[in-house]
Protein 1
Amino acid sequence: MTSPSTGRALPETERTRHRRLREQGSLDRAALDAVLAAGFLCHLGVVVDGTPMVVPTVYGADGGTLYFHGSVASRSLVASPGATVCVTVTHVDGLVLARSVFEHGVNYRSAMVYGTPRPVTDPEEKLAGLRCLTEQAAPGQWDYARRPSRKELAATALLALSLDEASVKIRTGPPDDGDGADAELGLWAGVLPLHTAWGPLEPDPALPADLAPPAHLADRAASPAGRPGA
Amino acid sequence: MTSPSTGRALPETERTRHRRLREQGSLDRAALDAVLAAGFLCHLGVVVDGTPMVVPTVYGADGGTLYFHGSVASRSLVASPGATVCVTVTHVDGLVLARSVFEHGVNYRSAMVYGTPRPVTDPEEKLAGLRCLTEQAAPGQWDYARRPSRKELAATALLALSLDEASVKIRTGPPDDGDGADAELGLWAGVLPLHTAWGPLEPDPALPADLAPPAHLADRAASPAGRPGA
């Protein structure tokens, strides 16, 4: 991720104000950048015929813009190009195991971005956006794999969403019932952390047997996952 | 998950028909049950003032019903109790690294459920639904932790969503460009698998030092994650 902005605050709007669990909310730009940099899959929410549709899709975040494929929700985005979308990125960090069922929860980091996506038509920006999207999921592949041809570029619908209206929610730490009456129950409480990790590379069976993977993939296959920016 | 139904097909509706990537779509009930059983976090899509809102939240799936907390999207669901929602559950299984950037993608399993959530008001069903939700994320905790009091139960808004209108999309296997012109480029191609795993338990600092975790948590802390049904 380029140009991480620290200390800047995102504007608070009617949609991004934290009503519930206010203590976990953040409008800090650096927090948003960090959550977006830590993943590559978002859930895109659009409205189709008045009902919501939530589609998983890959994204790339670069400075103030989030890029994603326009084809994933084509019915909606083609039908109403000026419509607002909501893009949500969530990382689950662990289960919060409290003394009471009522206080059980999840440690997580989540970002919600609202806005009206702009179709990227300029060929140069489209290449840059696709590079951003590709490198977010698979760093090193833009320089290694064959880049899009003019025909492929024309067939790709890329959308750009401003990060100006966004909010972050983060929960960390132990359960909240460590100092109440339930603490006297003698029950174990704490957090069961959840991690993601890359497994060993699985070569395409169509490959020649002696074709070794490039270093950027071989190195990654032995590393913790989901944190391309770390 | 109780009563997995094998061989049953979900009805195809205008919303669940697979338009894109048809080969990956499924309306098989067993496939839906498997995707839902493999996780505990969904992305809930609702419409608020005409714009979509996508909120991460925990769920429980039991037979034909998906349970989730009504408080997560209170603004919308309280304002329009008859509104349709979309619940999406996604598991990322790996990166598909093709010879061309254009063919890059993700191996994943995803379920989308559409419907109008029903508020659960019967105390017995509410307890059963909360048990389902708790056990999906943290098996064994319903019997171990303190169960909800009458007051806590009254303060909990639980929603039930039928699984009757749902669809599944799954992508597995190597990239699709193993037999085209790009196969001659001499580039490595294949899949970089992504796994989730539980880490070591983190005891609440407020606990007495000699309080050992129960077996169902200690055992799980050393196991692959995200597959409570497996």
Note: Chain B touches chain A through 97 residues (CB under 8 Å).
Protein 2
Amino acid sequence: MRHPPMLSFMRWCALLLLVLPLLARAADPLPSWQDGPSRQAIEAFVTAVTTEGGKDYVAPAERIAVFDNDGTLWSEQPAYFQVLFALSELKRMAPEHPEWKQQQPFKAALEGDQQTLAKSGMAGLLQIVLATHSGMSSAQFIQNARHWLDTARHPTTGRRFTEMVFQPMLELLDYLRANGFKTYIVSGGEVVFMRAFAEEVYGIPPEQVIGTTLGSRFEEKAGRLSIQRLPKLVHNDDGVGKPESIDRIIGRRPLFAFGNSDGDLQMLQWTMAGPGKRFAGLVHHTDAKREWAYDRNSKVGRLDKALSAANRGNWTVVDMAREWRRVYPFESPR
Amino acid sequence: MRHPPMLSFMRWCALLLLVLPLLARAADPLPSWQDGPSRQAIEAFVTAVTTEGGKDYVAPAERIAVFDNDGTLWSEQPAYFQVLFALSELKRMAPEHPEWKQQQPFKAALEGDQQTLAKSGMAGLLQIVLATHSGMSSAQFIQNARHWLDTARHPTTGRRFTEMVFQPMLELLDYLRANGFKTYIVSGGEVVFMRAFAEEVYGIPPEQVIGTTLGSRFEEKAGRLSIQRLPKLVHNDDGVGKPESIDRIIGRRPLFAFGNSDGDLQMLQWTMAGPGKRFAGLVHHTDAKREWAYDRNSKVGRLDKALSAANRGNWTVVDMAREWRRVYPFESPR
């Protein structure tokens, strides 16, 4: 059926009016970010360093972006997810370790004796992490981590842990990569644990994941080769450990860094101390309804010194409650 | 002036005949490789793993290629170039270290007393490397290395050390990258020293250089931040150290590996132990005229166990004298 020309044109206009907002949404690389100060700062920065011939232009090879993981790319409450993994693994592995029934902090962890466990402190936690993260090959450990990530559920949301990643940060990672940035994780989390999901969930390949590191040993046994994980901490990728590992492994200073806690302070300082235009950002957990609200007094992910440094240095501080249209991918945007 | 059509066509044919070999040369990604067994093995492998739909196809993300540096990408005679750098730096820095005049192995090194120096062995060499490679920031050390690389000359060829890179290997690096491979250095050389020239000379960015590693410390002094290099060996990237660092830093198994000495054996074994089609190559120094000839009995770059493993495993062994049309970029091809 043919319409008179004028009618056709009007129908076309009406259609366009319907479709335009969808097109605009499709073209928006950061749809989960409100048009607030953080989004504006990110977009202005990326435009500045990618505009050829502009005074702030930076060659693609130098566009290194580093992200903390816990509390920056995914949630970290009520405890670091990797700690929940270690406690779960301890239970799974307990039948092969009858001695744990008598030894602290294993006994307390297996019995759910939170008070004794808490008393064992960071040293106790490290023992649990080492016991569950070593004594097998890297390949086997990745399988263990993936099995847990596929099956375990978060204690309050009931979601898989890999669902509890921040949708606005996923968009930010994509946006930076589309603008020629190489995106890295630089996190206190153990590096092989993060590699078990970083590529699938964040689009960050194993070789761009830096983290806390255990000792390892190349082993040949009955003609089979493996890399065995040793119960020994060789690098704690937190605080000063972050710029140290960045210098050791990446070998150049990042142009862009995002964190959320005092453990990220030195990484952000190191990033900003370079020449030219640079970007430092913090996720500020201000949203008790959709996620959690905590900062200067939190036990997990304390944000105190880094928040003060951000205020002094004019870094970007993301107010999660106000600036994120949604927190998790499974939510509808508001 | 117009020619009769037939004459024009004949002139065009004659021109084509003249130009064709040049076009073929321009299209050849490996012009310095004779059409011998190594070149054929490389090309067959790359074609197999990059042919979409083929049974040996490997996704680009998994195309990790690792190269040793000393003896594989550049020469290593009469001594590792980094050792020559360390000895030169020792002399340059001596005025600030009057104590070296009395201390071995520094005294012997400064006086050119080869016998005493040799007696101090690997431990003595390590002392000299640590003394000249630490006690300053990473940024300062890179400047020192670049200054030496810009000014020092090889004792027998009189060339700059960065001219003594292997032209066929430069072509191989380019060829692999053009086929979607990510090229890495994994070398016993100290990592920051290699980063001082790897990007410019090999096209390998700092974050794809893995090597022997010193301790480092993030330092804030009078408001200035730096990464200070410590006189402490934290990783020896040789032998079993290579698959260990590959697993720790890259986090996946290479698909393609090239070395030249027994220090590369485990890296090559680790590469070949994975599933599917894989490539292991050795540069065999057989060319006493253009480079050096050495293998099973050499003190530098000994190739003994790895050569036997290559023969057993059907790895590619490059006969430098026969298979390379030229060794260095400054030579004309033969």
Note: Chain A has twelve helices and seven strands.
